[in-house]
Each structure stands twice: as C-alpha cells, then as structure tokens.
Design a protein that fits this description.
The protein has 577 residues and is an alpha+beta fold. It contains 21 helices and 16 strands. The chain has helices at 40-51, 72-83, 86-90, 96-110, 115-122, 131-135, 142-154, 156-167, 234-244, 261-268, 282-291, 323-352, 361-375, 396-403, 422-430, 433-445, 457-481, 491-496, 509-517, 529-537, 562-571; strands at 2-8, 11-23, 26-34, 63-70, 172-182, 205-213, 218-225, 250-253, 274-279, 304-307, 316-321, 381-385, 390-394, 408-413, 540-546, 554-557. It has an 8-stranded mixed beta sheet, sandwiched between helices. Strands 1-2-3 form a 3-stranded antiparallel beta sheet. Strand 12 and strand 13 form a beta hairpin. Helix 4 (96-110) crosses helix 7. It is elongated and about 105 Å long.
Length: 577
Amino acid sequence: MYIERVPNRGSRPAVLLREGWREDGKVKKRTIANLSDWPDHKIDALAAVLKGNAVVGDIDQAFDVVRSLPHGHVAAVLRLLEKIKLDQVISRSPCRERDLCLAMLVARITAPGSKLAIARGLSEETADSTLGELLAVQNADEDQCYAAMDWLLERQASIESALAKRHLADGALVLYDVTSTYFEGRHCPLAKLGHSRDGKRENPQIVIGLLTNAQGCPVAVEVFDGNTGDPTTLGPQIKKLRERFGLKRVVIVGDRGMITDARIREDLRGVDGLDWITCLRAPAVAKLLERGSFQLSLFDKRDMAEIVDVDFPGERLVVCKNPLLAQERSRKRQELLAATERELDRVRAAVARAVRPLRGKDRIGLRVGKLLGRFKMGKHFKLTIEDDSFRWERDEPAITAEASLDGFYVVRTTVLAEKLPTADVVRSYKSLAHVERAFRSLKTVELHIRPIHHRKEERVRAHVLLCMLAYYVEWHMRQALTPILFDDDDRKGAETRRESVVAPARRSERAESKALTKRTDAGEPVQSFRSLLRDLATIAKNRIQPKAPGAPAFEMITKPTSLQQRALDLLGVQLLP
C-alpha cells in the first residue's frame, strides 16, 4: 500500500490510500481509502509507516483487525468458474438466481452442506467466507436458494446441450454409468427401495446416471426412481445424445450390467451411426470357451486376442487375460466359499441339535437361501434338504470350471478395426474408471451429494444437477493443479511403464516420487485437492481499523505464500480485484 496525491485543478490535491499489483504484465491499482480530510502531519506519519521508515508507538497497537474472512479458496474457485465460462453456460444474462446458483456451486466444492448452512454462510452477519460478498448475495435466505434451484432446473437441458457442444464431437466416445445414493426421509416420489450400492438396504434411494466424455469430463446427469434397473436407463441417454445433442455418430461405453443383450437388441442394434463398447457376462464367456471360439492355451504367452463368434454377428470380441485379476478372483472365491461353509455348518447344527431343532423343508430352505443370497455362492454347492435333515457338499466340477476362467474377460464392440485398434478397444472400456472416479467424488471425498434431505422431486433433481456442475468445475481445477496434487501429472510416462493395456495401470515415476517424498521435483509440498482448498482458505480478507482518530477503515487481503501463488498461477486466476 502507498499514499498518492492526485492533482485536483485549483483545489487541494486528493490524498488517496492505494494498493497496487501486477496482472498480465500490467500494473494495476485500486483506491482503499480517501485521506483528503486528514491533516498533513497524520498523512506524513502514515506514509512513513507504510514505507517502513517510521513507527508511531507500538505498531501492533496502531490498528485493529475488526473482521477476517476466509477468501482465497472461494475466490479461486469462482475465478476459475468464470474463466471456463460456466456462468455463461448457466445463463448469459446476469441475474440474482444465477448468482445464487453460483454461490451454491462454489460452496458445494469448498464447504459442502445443506442449503440452510450455505445461506447462513452467505449472510453478512454469519458469513464463513467472502463468497456472499463476491457475488453480492449476502442477504439471501434458504427460500431464495430453493427458488434459484427451481430456476436452474428449468435450464438443465440448455446447460447440458452447451456442455455437450464443448466436449462431445460427432463420432465421440461417450462414457455412461449409474450409481445410487441413499435418501433421508420417505416423502420424495423418487425415493424407492432398490439395489443399494451404499450398503443401506433399509433406506430408500435414487439412481443417478452420468454421461461424460472420454476423459471423464461430465456433460449430463439424470435422476431416476430408486428401483430403476441399470439397463433401463440407457434408452433415454441414447435419445439425449442423438436428438438433444445432435450427434449423428457416437460410440457409447457402458459396463456389462448396463449394455445388456436386451438393450442392444431393443435400443442399439440397427441404429445408424450408433456403436457401443461393453463387456460380456461370465456365462457368455464360458459359452465361448465351450464352443471353442478361443482356447486357454492361446494365452500362455499373450494376454489379449481378437476373435469372432457366430452369436455376435458384426461384432469384434477382444479376449483378455489379467493374471493379477485371476489371483484376486481366486482369493476372493476361496474366502467366500469358506464363509458360506461356516454358515451352512451352523444351519446343519441347528437341524441336528436335540433342543428345539430346526425342522421343516420350508424353514430350513429359508435359512439356507438367506445365507446363500448373502455370499452368492449357491452355484458351488449341492444341497440336500429334508424335513429333519440337511446336508451339503461342494460342487467341485462347477468350482473348477469357473476357476479356469479366472482373470479372463471379453470386451465386445461394433466399432470397425480401422477406426479403433484392438488395444484401444480395451483402453476405451477401461476408461469407465473416469466415471467411477466422478461418482467417488460426488458421493464421498469431495462434494458429498448425500445424504439428501429434499422432499420435492424437482429439488432433488436440481440438487444432483448442482453437484454435477460442481464436479465439472472440480474436474477442470484438477487438470490444472495436477503438478502439485498427488494425481499423476505424467500420463505418457505412466503408459510407457505399462507392459500391456490389459495389465493393471501403473503410476509414473514422477507420481510415485510425489507419493513417497510428499514433494514435487521442484521441492514444493504435494497436497490433496481438499487440503489445497483448506490452504487457500487461509488467504483472508481483513477489515482493518486504524486507531488514529478519524482514520477510515480499509480492507487488506493476506499475501499468498509461494505455494498458494503457485496454485493460483496454475489455475490462471487472480484474487484481485
């Protein structure tokens, strides 16, 4: 800060307290306070203090910090959001609803919480950051946040179309997968009991489908009833890609539970310009082996081979064998078999005991069915159930037959070989890991989409849309911040260390070094995305009141540390003005 005297024609010069900084190679400045009413001796004394040439009494007694709010993290996210023009995607016309949506979006990244908590964090009286001030929404309440969510939901189609135009080209690879998340309360029409991926079988849930590009950047999201099966969500996505996004040619990638034979037959096959990449289920792989479409000996010295089969006309089948996956499946099978046997022995003991024995085929069968459903090992046991007895034994031939295919999987696609080589087919299928990472961020480590407390169907959809847009910002931030995060910033180096596309992915030497030393090659400390946000939050906006009589209060932002400035430079954003 410095004092500048500005000539004012025939009047006394204006005396201004100013702050300067550099931006894009240019010097910029702003006025903090007008000191024109101060007497000259007081101005000279302050100027001397600012220059470090004099101290008036004890310097720590000369000022009061009357308020200090975390600023760096919300300012960095908001500036990045504006840099990638997501605000323009939401609405080209500035309005209060858009500003509130941006506030909720930034808060979802920096401090996930309920809409009530966000509203309190924006309020001038109870602010937990400068976010409300930056977006001029300090007086918003939760009802206004809900109204803004309703406004946002009306724009979902146009928002997704704009994102698709940015990130999806004709003939593009599109990743699609679904997840579920549990629901608090029972009054939302979307909340239904279904297959829970969260282990909350007693809670109703919703199903969420996410579309991303090949790199995992999200472009669209849809919410389904909690009892919706994965395959039935595929049709609406195909319609969205073809009709709303206007893609004439598209390759959709989904897992074996998503792109099933029924969906291929009803939604995909015969559609001009529509191709798919998915994986066969275990029974279909076993049938290929039984029919002689491939031999196990073929993989003694290789881990990948492309075949054809009469049951899959017009499709390419890529058979892969991963030895590490084979070891893991064998280990898991043995553990599940042992756990199942322990439980079966308990049932047998209950039938044989002298006091209150378990009797009746139906009661014994119910007990056995419950435990077999828990471990999913019923196909590997032969059971004999009578009214007063129960026996079991392993089905060794079935176990051996399944074990012979440990580590094998078959990727199927309709994409022509000249457009997508064999290795790229497998690589494309494995890219579904990007969607899994998005779900992990949405549900747990970063954005905390759950638990969901909204009761209205539209609010739940808007909440999920907000979280998807927050992940869109996070995805861009991670791409820029990779050099100082634990994420691998040398993908080419990682790929060269991989023996084959079938083999498990390996981290680059640079990423392993970061994980081991917790430092970059330049000696900078490496952080997680969340810890870096906490670090940026220590950049505060301080309101300072000089104790000199009549001195005006002014604001001052904490000077970033070298690491904080490095993060801001990587993001390409400035905290000022």
